[in-house]
Design a protein that fits this description.
Two copies of one chain form a homodimer.
Chain A lengths: L1 E9 L16 H13 L6 E2 L8 E11 L5 H11 L4 E9 L11 E9 L13 E2 L6 H11 L1 E4 L9 H4 L7 E13 L2 E8 L6 H14 L4 H10 L14 E7 L5
Parallel strand pairs in A: 3-10, 5-6
Antiparallel strand pairs in A: 1-3, 1-4, 2-3, 5-9, 5-10, 7-8, 8-9
Enzyme class (chains A, B): isomerase
Family (chains A, B): Belongs to the tRNA pseudouridine synthase TruA family.
EC number (chains A, B): 5.4.99.12
């Protein structure tokens, strides 16, 4: 029995998210359908986590177990031939027995992209949140410094999701290793956040609150107080899904 | 009567091209619909040229005539409010009487984007042609140097289109001011071509032939001979529409 790790990129626009669901097509379902055809039996694909409806990925990971003589290269080509064009396997490789896409992951990096100019280029509309207001990079950077390190992120957890996302016994405590903002192209800003794990909607809730600080609707001390309060009712709006992309899942060997 | 110049960006994926047609939605039709609502009378919008079905634009231009007291800023905002999200007016400004988006244009710049890696990121699939083979930048650059200057481009004109695209009395003679290739991101290459005008499908026919040279299916002397032969049957395949973007239409003041 082999354990195959997949690295997956997808345009989340047309999907109800990573997880198999009844209300629409999901990335997991498409992968399982394709893998089951290639392997000629029902395959369950285990993802490194879930992404919400509309969220994109460049480096999502998943694994599945299979007894096959097919090379990883052939598996990858076969999957890509069967998958829709908005889902691509960018890498397939054998892992040691016991590898688990989710439990072996040490960290994830997310990118949140927003554009502050008056008119967003339509070629970038599906991956960029349009926030047509000037933002203070200094204020956002100050907040990003505050979230780095280990904190209880209850204030940025989506209400009602407590039971589901706290499966590791560490409650809402997470460690952010790195959090930066950069202007990639004129007017296009990217928040890049790497952490050992994220609560449900945590990146979007952080992004929404950071953008409120950036626009001057809140100040840095208020952001700090929100984090410390551990009360979801204090934080800002959840930023839209389409600005979010899962860039990478980090495992021991690349961390 | 005022002459309003528009700069327009669009994702051409869902359109049958710039020009009003009966077989599907066109950019021109959407613009005329929106402009007619704002101006409360039937408006005809004149484009700087036509783009094929699936071709994108960042800086297409058009003009229309109107007697209105509305400011350009209000016109732009109103149009964007009425247009679908995949078409955006990025600028609207008054021009002198006699300005014509097409006849006043001195040059246009097109970009053709292709990716040579094995798996194309799905987030870029709608604007990038996937050509999963190594290409020789040196060979393509040599061909780009050959097309610079004034030539008869009959070999790169789509067969059967002669009557329509030769309206200026200059036959198939066009001048290319600048033609370059660059690697924008790893594996992503951009052909950038600026000329005083382009025959129907000329950029896509050039791109298709240049890519055949890049892959080694033809050599540079052969490319040169194709240009000189003025025979469409010799050139390579027409490169797919979705890799092409009209970047800019140049007028006197910015040229």
């Amino acid at each position: 029995m082999r354990t195959i790790k997949l690295v997956i990129a997808y345009d989340g626009t047309g999907y109800c998210g990573w997880q198999r669901q009844t209300n629409g097509p999901s990335i997991q379902q498409e992968l399982e359908r394709a893998a089951s055809i290639i392997c000629n039996r029902q395959i369950t694909v285990h993802g490194a986590g879930r992404t919400d409806a509309g969220v994109h990925a460049v480096g999502m990971t998943a694994h599945f177990s299979i007894a096959t003589a097919l090379s990883c290269r052939v598996l990858q080509k076969g999957l890509n031939a069967l998958l829709p064009e908005d889902i691509r396997i960018t890498a397939a490789e054998d892992e040691a027995t016991g590898f688990h896409a989710r439990f072996s992951a040490l960290a994830k990096t997310y990118r949140y992209t927003f554009f502050t100019g008056p008119v967003l280029c339509p070629l970038r509309r599906l991956t960029t949140y349009h926030l047509p207001y000037p933002v203070s990079l200094e204020a956002i950077t100050a907040c990003l410094e505050i979230i780095c390190g280990t904190h209880d992120f209850s204030s940025f957890e989506t209400a009602g999701s407590r039971d589901k996302s706290r499966t590791s016994g560490r409650g809402a405590i997470r460690t952010i290793f790195r959090a930066t903002i950069e202007e990639a192209d004129p007017g296009f800003f990217q928040l890049l956040i790497t952490g050992d794990g994220f609560l449900r909607h945590m990146v979007r809730n952080l992004a929404g609150t950071l953008l409120e600080v950036g626009r001057g609707k809140r100040d840095v001390p208020e952001f700090s107080a929100i984090l410390q309060a551990r009360d979801r009712n204090l934080a800002g709006a959840t930023a839209p899904a389409h600005g979010l992309t899962l860039l990478k899942v980090h495992y021991r060997y690349d961390w």
